[in-house]
Amino acid sequence: MVRLVMILLGVDYLRTRWRELLAVGLLSIVLGVTIFCDALDGALWFPIIPFAALLLLEGLATLAVAWTGMGGQRTLRYVKGATFVVSAGLVLMGGEHGNFILSMIFGTLFLADGTLQIIAAGLVRYRTWKIAIGGGVLELAIAIFLYQPYPDYYAGTIAYCVAFGLLFGGWNMTLLALRVRRMATNPVVADEKRTEHRAVAAGTVAVATAAATVATPDGPNLHSSNSFDGAPEPHEHALTIHVWTPVGSAKAQARRQPIIDRYIAAVDRNGSISTGHAALESTEGVYISLYPAVEIERSPEEFSRILRATRDNDVPGLFQPDYATESKAWCPSTRQVCIRNYDPERLERFWAEYRRTTTYNLTYRNCSSTVAKALEAAIEGASARAWGKKGGWKPFLRIAATPELWVAAQVRKRAATMAWTPGLTLDYARALSMLADPRPSGWVKMARIALGTMHKSRQRWRAEKAAARNIDDTGAVPGQPSGSTDAGARGSDLTPF
Question: Which domain holds residue 376?
Fold first, then answer.
């Protein structure tokens, strides 16, 4: 999450606030340790009932405005609200049963995440795979701690989770503050090419987008508005991420395998494996789509071997010229994500350096990882740009309170320990689009809709009152010729029954 915050806000924005970030991070760590130690004896000092009440209110408030979201944002809000309400309900229910259920839920989440991380890191063998395995082992240890009843017989489950959240959050904020503090000058000014080339060679272009392509809140404000409601129109200036899903790009009818055919690969009825594809297109004409120069054998027997992120699996690659050519030779993309708030100069700078190497590797340098790195380069500093020079702490607080930040961080973590796939790239692009193009607050949007409805109703009532006054004053029905009513009335009086 540290690198993601650096990418979204920019190094210059964070460097001017590193002392405050460091103080908040250290305070969060101290609070986390204090709450954890307090929960060990089962006699909680932590105000668990007020905390559960706030959690319940937050969950209900999220559910109340969830319908104002768009697509995946709406689903995420519903999931977040339901999770908060259920967790708060179990706490308020009290007793051993509620605490036990919460312990099992949180323990299972840590167990599943840690196991997946260990298996993926051991299978793919990234450069930092041993560190990833260490993180997975830590999650397994936390899961075991939550599963077993000692020392408090599940009474401190919520306190433990709050403590872990404060500890991890404080640690990340402290790392963020220390990293941006050391970046005293813009490395692009000193030696841009050397910095970018070293980052590419090390396979860490994501860091280069945060450290080499520095965004500043004083830079060009590409958009006058600080919120974007709705998808971009076809004529708007926007960055487009094209995704060919494994199922959508299969040569024959795919055998449906939930989750697997969404994030890894799809197998058609002939036994062929399709992993999908991803590409990035800008309005300025940049098109980034890396593909192996020679089709890689993807039979089930060979797939496990080429999945390793090792140099012996490197093959020559090529970049497609444009979307029209690629879609005509293959098929149109099945999903598109558009982002308005991006910097074409940073994207062009990244592309000029990245395309010097055409090496393709199915795991660590594939189409999806290329698009993810290019996307990070393009939106570097986007959240600070969205609020302009007078944003203050608002950009930081807004992205910290946005659920999509957590989603994007989890997707990025999964990809870093496993591999970037078209499915992960699609989820990552959708989450980043909510952060780069901030949507109006759900409460603001709901209030705006309510005020608009009230205004229209008031106009309708005024029109009805004006029509009623016209009838009372003249006796004429609106739209009827003047005098027709009186004539009709006189005629009816003179006509005998």
Answer: 221-399
**Residues forming a β-bridge with 316:** 359
pLDDT band at 232, cuts 50/70/90? low
Check if the beta carbon of residue 44 is closer than 8 Å to that of residue 38: yes
Q: Which two tokens stand for residue 380?
A: 């570097």
How many domains is the chain built from? 2
| pLDDT, tens digit (0-9, with 9 covering 90-100), for 64-74 | 777 766 555 57
- CA dist., res. 383 & res. 398, Å (int): 9
Q: Measure the CA–CA gap between 266 and 253, rounded to whole angstroms.
A: 10
Let me know whether 246 and 364 are in one domain: yes
Alpha helix locations (H) across 40-71? 48-65
How far apart CA 24 and CA 27 sit, in angstroms, is: 5
- pTM as predicted: 0.72
DSSP classification of residue 66? G
Q: Domain boundary residue among 372, 399, 426?
A: 399
What digits encode the pLDDT tens for the residues 404-428?
A: 887 888 888 888 777 888 989 998 9
pLDDT value at residue 369: 92
Contacts (Cβ under 8 Å, ≥6 apart) of 105? none
Q: Which residues of 412-439 are buried (b: 16+ CB within 10 A; e: fewer)?
A: bbbbbbbbbbbbbbbbbbbbbbbbbbbb
259 and 388 fall within a common domain: yes
